[in-house]
UniProtKB/TrEMBL annotation:
Functional description taken from the UniProt entry: Catalyzes the rate-limiting step of the oxidative pentose-phosphate pathway, which represents a route for the dissimilation of carbohydrates besides glycolysis.
Name of the molecule in the record: Glucose-6-phosphate 1-dehydrogenase
Family: Belongs to the glucose-6-phosphate dehydrogenase family.
Residue span(s) of domain Glucose-6-phosphate dehydrogenase C-terminal: 191-473
Record keywords: Carbohydrate metabolism, Glucose metabolism, NADP, Oxidoreductase
Gene Ontology CC: cytosol
Record-linked Pfam families: G6PD_C, G6PD_N
Residues annotated as domain Glucose-6-phosphate dehydrogenase NAD-binding: 10-188
EC numbers, comma separated: 1.1.1.49
A biological process from GO: pentose-phosphate shunt, oxidative branch
Amino acid sequence: EFQENTVITVFGASGDLAKKKTFPALFGLFREGHLSASTKIYGYARSHLSIEELKSRIRPFLKTPTEESKSKVEPFLDLISYISGPYDTNEGFIKLNDDIVKFEKDAKVEEPHRLFYLALPPSVFVDVAKQLKENVYATNGVTRIIVEKPFGHDLKSSRELQEQLAPLFKEEELFRIDHYLGKEMVKNLLNLRFGNQFLNSSWNKESIQSIQVSFKEPFGTEGRGGYFDSIGIIRDVIQNHLLQVLTLLTIEPPKSYDSESVRDEKVKLLKAIKPLDFNDLIVGQYTASEDGTKPSYLDDETVNPGSKAVTFAAIPLYIDNERWSGVPIVLRAGKALDVGKVEIRIQYKPTSPEVPSNELVIRIQPSEAIYIKLNTKQPGLSTSSTIVDLDLTYKNRFENFWIPEAYESLIRDSLRGDHSNFVRDDELDESWALFTPLLNHLESDSAPAPILYPYGSRGPKELSSFLEKHGYVFSETT
Ligand code: BG6
């Protein structure tokens, strides 16, 4: 199940991501028996921290759902050592290497297995990668590097980043995380599509009227405005997370389910998406909530005054291939909305004008669920039809299953060298190629001002008619 004496190093160990996601994910794997007690974990960052300080930062974020799991916290924390050092010169890296080599020697490791997790801002990616290659690379074993988004800011900068990393690490050594690929329902998409004949045979333009992938968050960018202002919602979640979901929803059946075949199909699909129409989309920015209790985006002092940053976007895509031509697919995402929910809605064409259409809903979060709106005769003496949900809510059906967090699932994959749920270089290129022209347009002087919507609302009020125009039929339960 796992390799013994693996060495995992978390760069950016004192930062937010490491504290909230990386260490808790490592703990989750340890707690569930997917990370050996023989593992050695190093935290590395610039800050001068004692190991006790690092542990007390991490401890509150480790999840212990059962009494028994509480007893695993300290043994897990005991696997961690901390090294402080710079990212751009070699002192810390030499020390790290000395420590790792000593650990591996004591454990009599013949083929080192080293995983480096770069929970770092992109500005230091390349420095760290260079230092790793020079000083800590396992020449007679396996080295793997996990990098976090953002992978560049547009097509050009993403290519530059790749060109700098490529001479240092082979593509098979690099794991670009898009954490949406680690979510249970996203991992389920191919099983669902290709394992059910009734879905498989109707998964096309003849049967499907429209597809929506929507991401709604009930909070704004409070505290992250400075970061978000130059990024915007399209780079933050659409170009990566939602587009990844879309590719898995729409690719052709891969030759096999190995990571390369699946990703080959994803690249083909991305290439088949028509260029985006700058005049056919909605972009928005939130204002203060109607009751005045929540701030507007521009109230954040770290945001540029008068910023046109987009906190909401609805973008229709069209795939120009045999299966999908003409089917509108709307990706939409918004911050500071009325609810927190991420879901896919596939609306079928109606069988006749008299009956409502079927709809398949795949809820990614919260509370994973799949439900199908199905026409059925009203029970009893009535002969008329009614539409009801055929409901597979995971927490009811799969009560005793451990559903790993996205990061748990992905770190486990990377430890096993499985790239299926990571983004390949050519996939990344295609995704930037698709969005860069639109981003340039939205960031030019002639950019339209985003439509304002109040914090806590459903988004710009134009949204409903926009969705209707793109083939979406609202029902009472939508
Ligand atoms: C991150 C974005 O990639 O994804 C955040 O930077 C966003 O802005 C987050 O909130 C959403 O992830 P999740 O797993 O909470 O849906």
